[in-house]
Design a protein that fits this description.
- There is one protein chain.
- With 739 residues, the chain is mostly beta strands.
- It has a 22-stranded antiparallel β-barrel. It has a 5-stranded mixed β-sheet with strand order 3-8-9-6-7.
- The longest helix has 12 residues.
- The protein is globular and about 75 Å long.
- About 6% of the residues have low confidence.
Length: 739
Amino acid sequence: MMRSVSLWLAGGCFAGFAAPAWAQSSDAAAPTVGQSAADQANSDQTEIIITAQKRSERLLDVPQSVSVISGERLESQHAQRLSDYLTRIPSANVVESQAGQSRIVLRGINTGGVGATVATYIDEAPFGSATSLANGGVLAPDLDPFDLARVEVLRGPQGTLYGANSLGGLIKYVTVAPDPGAIAGAAELGVENVSHGGTGWWGRAAANVPLTSEAAFRATAFYRRDAGYIDDPLLGDDVNDGKTYGGRLAFYARPTPNLRVRASVLLENIRSNGTNIVDVNPVTLRPTLGELEHSRLVDEPNNIDYRLYNTTLDYDFGPVALVSATSFGTLDQDETFDASGVYGPILTHVLGMPLGGAVDQGMTQRRFTQEVRLASDQRGAVEWTFGGFYTHEKNRLAQNLYGIDGATGARIAPLDGLVVVDLPSRYKEIAGFANATWHLSPRFDLTGGGRYSHNSQSVEQHTSGPLAGGASTFAANSSDNVFTYSVAPSFKLNANTRIYARVAKGYRPGGPNAVSPLAPAGVPRQFGPDTTTNYEVGVKTQTDDHLLTAEASAFLVDWKDIQLLAQIAGFGVNTNGGSARSKGIELTLGLNPSRELSIYANGAYVDAYLTTNTPAFVGGLSGDRLPYNPKWQSTIGAEYGHPLSATVTGHAGISWHYTGSRRGDFAPIVGQARLSSFDQLDAHAGVDVGRFRVDAFAHNLTDAHGIVSLATFGAPRDGSFAASVIRPRSFGLTAGIRY
């Protein structure tokens, strides 16, 4: 689950489909609303160019496992949220309890906790916190996909080029760049009805305006109302509805033949009114109330604002290019959650009246990042990149536990501030990195690199309130150093087939725990970094005409000194303990028998498990599966378009996604729960008429009620577990125009 209330009085923090889609480069035009299916098929059969190794390369030539989802694919499949498309990637999973509260898992690297194991970049800028003191693991950015050129998913550690928190891999959003070549625009309106719930709608628009032959401006905006589908007997129906709105401004200029400047501002606001949680029986995991119902005493809103400001300068010296990327990102979160299942019995017993408890929580993240790198051109026997990286974060977590009426949920003023926690922290990191590819022969390449990183952190905890035993202030500091590396030999069987092997290391920074000096000696004052080492072999191939594309990889990941969020002697802290292993196979296939038809399939087998026991208070035993990782996962789909007349083209698509059974969080008393497998069937059909497109679609046609996460304590007052579920069946209609 995304929330925890176990850290009160603890001196700790609440760390609380892809086909092998043929994508465009980052300088491509926008995903065009109303693009014809024939145009889609044509774009799907052009070469994929990506920037996974911080240089433009064919996907086929990158010696590691990478999936790409094009902006056109996101549009045609009506993907609105992170969980709509990322779960269709081999060995990728999203654990979500509410809009804006998401954890990304790649190759099974997850044990709960609050530090991210998957790094996120938006173009050249890292986004989200690198520290486990700021809930980075459960606040993965969920960007509206309208203005994305593509999403690159790099599986396996990416510590050499991307640094901290890439234990399991990297998600890289590549936005559409302004185009000086032409005036262009797109707009879309849509409506969607959710079974057992309400009706949502959205509007999106984008405009590209050339300023000169070497400069352009691009603006996008969107507004989306999300329908709810969770009912509450006290609070009403569809309590988890909400809205998401924002946009992006981007500027591109080439003031001299050798200098390119790109600047952008991204804004997105998420306003969710409630969680996607159903109260379920602890044994059967069947709903204890209605099929999509929970019982809470207070509304549980979650409001999140993303801001990202970035300027990237690219100067071409001829044999060498210089890139400078400067960014400043912010995240502001305000949420309320019902903690009556934990604190209600305590308050009721102490005060002799039926009471519950709720928590107001705020999180702020401020992150400045500067990267400068030099890269050789691509004409020599050795292609190299080296550079420096600096980041500085200021974060603050605030919590307030207060009493509420046990029948009505009304806030009780004398019981406000039962525990108040303020946790400001700082994180600084400086790193140097280098990566090179040596073309030993026309067929054999050797790619390798390394990164040395130093970070320092500080944290203070200010605690007050009657249940906290009065006011207190603690402070702590930490620092650590780490070296990460990657080595990847590759061999070209022919121009369209490459075999590779890869060994790579990733890490997640350690940090301080702010605890009382009077805490027992067994309560750790610091927690160390954890690391993964990935061993991988793979093959990528395609036919000359792109009729067939295929990629297969086999991997083994060893995870050491795992960071865990735990209660130790009544103190909630981050600690290290145990080791794990993840091994598996990933497969992606694409078939384009004609310009009108595209068929794709992918799947993964991932066996991720502990290899040693965690500390007893965490509850994990050697051999236990890592939480929320399906051993089996697959997606199969097809897209078809056919001209109906000289001006009208029909198109249709269908996809089926399977998520295998999983295990829940480690639990020392009740043990890991088993979550059943589920299927999702999506379809769409429509017509393009000139510049216009009309499309009808359906998600989750079989109305599956899959559970994606499970909490064994917290909000439910009757002993139920809290299960986050996928969205029910929905039907929608969109209309778009492009010019």
